[in-house]
Amino acid sequence: MKLFETTTEMGHEQVLFYQDQKVDLRAIIALHDTSPGKAMGATRLWPYVCEEDALRDVLRLSRGMTYKAACANIPVGGGKGVIIANPQNKTDEMLKAYGRFVESLNGLFITGQDVNLSPKDVRTIQSETNYVVGVYEKSGGPAPLTARGVLLGIKAAVEFCWQTQRLDGLKVAVQGLGNVGQSLCKYLHQEGVELFVSDLNPNKTEIAKILYGAKVVEPSEIYSLDVDIFSPCALGGVLNSLTIPLIQAKIIAGAANNQLEDEQRHGQKIESRGIIYCPDYVINAGGLINVYNEMIGYEEEKAFEQLDNIYSTIQEILLLADEQKINTGEAARQLAEQRILEIKKSKFQLI
């Protein structure tokens, strides 16, 4: 990967690398676009095979946060942090050092909890910086709101596809049963959906089986099931040249970030198969909506009003894609960039 060419091509303002050998910390913070406001984006800790993989991940995730905020009409920019480490080697000293890294940006980047970081870990980071959100989960945490947003996106896609919002009787395959995946299973079960689930942790699939009557399948089988909706809720890159031909679902709508291994190529491949794809950074914006409202002073009514916009935004994207004969990823990007441009114009007019 050519670092400077890649960051320029993706439109990043800053990419910052940090190392503290004393505590074995290697971290990257990417700031994509701060023109709408301070960059917000959670931090994930992951044992990347190489630094190039970590850089690729943080660049895509931070750009996704810019588009996510724009599509959700949240006045913040996009950023992301990654810590390159095995979760088993995580220490308080490492997290505190990362907190000092965040603090050094003087509020330009506001972060929170992502993969392999617990609320306790985030509180440890907060001991060294004021620029952390989602520490005490005042609204119950981001997972339930993220899952509700995915549910709304699914309903929007179902209405577009079958002219109804009713989900009862539909078959949905949920891949990944973390906090969001489990919450989504709960909501789908309440809607009368027939659930199929997979996860690398058998304890999680057993819970879904007991609580929601879900049918448990092997992770390798989840793509090829004869279902109506496939919902990726694990890590990214699961929609690729190997898996897309296996999918029988008419709709793909899930909470995972960066679901497409290659945005352009695999977005077109999904579109060519007649599958409706709900862009991940639009449908999973509930977590951002949650922490943003905690930051400004949580008001449940306002947060849920913003959450409801996911439904209308997904509908707008699906209609735009259909009218212009483009894939939904391109339509979502057009919508996001148009909203960002409008923000920049309005700020320029105030100068």
Helix content: 40-55%
Would you tell me the structural class of the helices and strands? alpha/beta
Major beta-sheet overview? 6 strands, mixed
What's the quaternary structure here? single chain
Give the N-terminus to C-terminus distance in angstroms: 39 Å
* Range of strand content: 5-15%
What is the mean predicted local confidence, pLDDT? Answer: 90
**So how many helices?**
12
> Ranges with pLDDT <50 over ≥5 residues?
none
Global morphology = globular
How are helices and strands ordered from N to C? HEEEEHEHEHHEHEHEEEHEHHHH
Rg over CA atoms: 19 Å
For the structure shown, list the relevant keywords.
12 helices; 6-stranded parallel β-sheet; 351 residues; alpha/beta
Structure in a nutshell:
The chain is an alpha/beta fold and 351 residues long.
Structure description:
- This protein is 47% helix and 15% strand.
- It has helices spanning 3-10, 51-71, 92-103, 119-126, 142-162, 179-190, 202-212, 263-272, 280-283, 286-296, 300-324, 328-350, and strands at residues 14-20, 25-33, 39-40, 43-46, 77-84, 109-110, 171-175, 194-198, 215-216, 229-232, 251-252, 276-277.
- It is globular.
- The mean pLDDT is 90.
Give the topology.
Elements lengths: L2 H8 L3 E7 L4 E9 L5 E2 L2 E4 L4 H21 L5 E8 L7 H12 L5 E2 L8 H8 L15 H21 L8 E5 L3 H12 L3 E5 L3 H11 L2 E2 L12 E4 L18 E2 L10 H10 L3 E2 L2 H4 L2 H11 L3 H25 L3 H23 L1
Helix pairs in contact: 2-12, 3-4, 5-6, 5-10, 5-11, 6-7, 10-11, 11-12
